[in-house]
Write a structure and sequence with these properties.
about 450 residues; alpha+beta; Immunoglobulin-like; Serine Threonine Protein Phosphatase 5, Tetratricopeptide repeat; 2 domains; five-stranded antiparallel sheet; 16 strands; about 40% helix; disordered N terminus; transmembrane helix
């Protein structure tokens, strides 16, 4: 009996262990990857120092590629007291991997050390913080009476992203409160690698809206009085996810196709793409191949083929998941280019007017619409505007009348008029006849 209970105990234990193991390996993954929402910048906090005024803050983020960004930040500090003092500063760390960290305080470069949050969090004033780990200057840095110096930090940080290629950028500014003084100027600049950035990579909004956006994809925020707690925006690596998806199929033809795309061998892209789409079984994969083929046709200035592919894709109902909006934006931008170059101004004009009312277009796409509009020749534009001009009330009535819309109504009116006129004539004649005998 005891032996049987023992065996039952071990059997139950084994089943529980097996269930736990199954839960670990086959549990449904989270919708986002680790670290994708972690900030790229948490800021240099003041931990210790007296009679210090933070006068100017400049933060720069350069998105190098899908994997990393480079951050540089400088803090101009003035000792407003009459005696020498020192300043102790540190920056909290996120869950993202950071490399090549450099800490400076003019004119020298300083070592930095990792410090537990238990030792640092309570030292911060002006803002509540609870971070696990900090990287601090290795010691308190001296600053003379009335002297102004600049503390600066720089590092590379990994870019987290969701499975559908969305990267969420967050730049924290609430750390400025720890300096217990209002800087005269805070500026934040975000720029992108010109080799990889595209207008369709951006979401439709920024929080808050940038002070300035350049055509070279440089975003600038300048704050003089009210400083937000953070800056947030979303960026999608559409083309990279398309290539990743094709590679993940494990098909040698698709791998060769993606290699041709990355090598910018556009003739090869078209050749391999044509071969694959003829026998493709998965509609989504076929559509993604078509999208990259359209890019190559566009580069080769074969605009009619690019438009033909988009017309073909427009007749399908492919679900790209989280890539739907950026892919639609990509197609829109390329269609504008093709229609302008093929001088199909009528279609271009109608497309621009249709898209102008879309509230979800980002700044760069709206600029592209206006640039395409400016490419329509003046005489052609005037003719199109006249042709598309809504008719006046009188013109609308005449058009409806000539179209026969009021035929039965008009016949009824004419008939009524004729009947009434006839009755009037009849009674007048009858009255004259009766008056003859008096």
């Amino acid at each position: 009996m005891k032996q049987r209970k023992k065996r039952a105990f071990w059997l139950v234990s084994f089943l529980l262990f097996l269930g736990a193991l199954t839960a670990v390996f086959f549990a449904k993954p989270l919708l986002t990857r680790a670290n994708e929402s972690e900030p790229v910048f948490l800021g240099l906090h003041l931990l210790k120092g007296e009679n210090l005024a933070l006068t100017n803050v400049e933060i720069s983020v350069v998105v190098n590629d899908r994997n990393t960004s480079t951050v540089n930040a400088s803090y101009e500090i003035t000792n407003t007291g009459s005696e020498n003092t020192s300043v102790y500063m540190a920056m909290p760390l996120t869950g993202k991997t950071m490399t090549d960290s450099t800490y400076r305080f003019t004119p020298y470069k300083y070592n930095s050390v990792l410090v537990s949050g238990d030792q640092i969090n309570s030292m911060v004033q002006g803002v509540s913080v609870q971070y696990d780990m900090w990287r601090a200057y290795s010691f308190e840095v001296p600053i003379g009476a009335g002297e102004t110096k600049t503390a600066s930090i720089s590092y590379n940080i990994e870019n987290g992203s969701t499975e559908d290629g969305k990267m969420f950028y967050s730049i924290h500014l609430d750390h400025i409160k720890s300096w217990l003084s209002q800087p005269e100027n805070v500026s934040v600049t975000v720029s992108f690698n010109p080799k990889t950035v595209k207008a369709y990579n951006f979401d439709s909004s920024f929080e808050p809206e940038p002070t300035e956006i350049s055509d070279q994809f440089i975003l600038t925020w300048v704050f003089v009085e009210e400083i937000p707690d953070n800056i947030r925006f979303q960026y999608s690596i559409v083309d990279e996810i398309i290539k990743d998806t094709l590679r993940s199929q494990g098909n040698e033809e698709l791998i060769a196709f993606v290699h041709a795309v990355e090598s910018r061998d556009h003739g090869k892209v078209v050749e391999l793409g044509k071969e694959y789409v003829q026998k493709a079984e998965e509609p989504k994969i076929q559509s993604m191949v078509y999208l990259l083929m359209a890019d190559s046709y566009l580069f080769l200035k074969n605009y009619s083929q690019t438009l033909a592919i988009y017309e073909l894709l427009g007749a399908t109902t492919t679900d790209y998941g989280g890539l739907d909006n950026p892919i639609q934006t990509k197609v829109l931008l390329n269609r504008l280019t093709c229609l302008a170059n093929t001088k199909d101004y009528e279609t271009l004009y109608d497309l621009i007017n249709f898209e102008r009312v879309n509230p979800d277009l980002n700044y760069f796409v709206r600029n592209a619409l206006e640039d395409a509009y400016d490419r329509i020749p003046g005489a052609t534009l005037e003719a199109l505007e006249e042709d598309r001009r809504p008719p006046t009330g009188l013109e609308l009535f005449i058009n409806r009348f000539l179209g026969g819309e009021f035929t039965f109504f008009l016949i009824g009116i004419i008939s009524a008029v004729l009947i009434i006129t006839g009755l009037i004539i009849y009674f007048r004649r009858k009255r004259k006849k009766n008056n003859f005998f008096y």
